[in-house]
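Marked as duplicate of an earlier ticket. Keeping the data here for the record.
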Amino acid sequence: SDSAYGAVAFAGDGTRAILYTNAVLLDSMAIWDTETDTFDERSLIKPVQSIGLSPAGDNAIIFRCRRVDCN
């Protein structure tokens, strides 16, 4: 991937994390499996403002940008 992510949200057990950025209007994120060190990049409908990950790492809530100047 050519995407550069600058923020990370870890699951409580540290086995998974979501990588994203809100420094630029990027409409994707990556799921990082820290046990296998693999990444699964996902396209999103809108750029990300922030992401919250559940303690178990099985659910995430994604807050999207509603305006162009949401950074």
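See parent ticket for discussion. The two ends are 23 Å apart (CA to CA).
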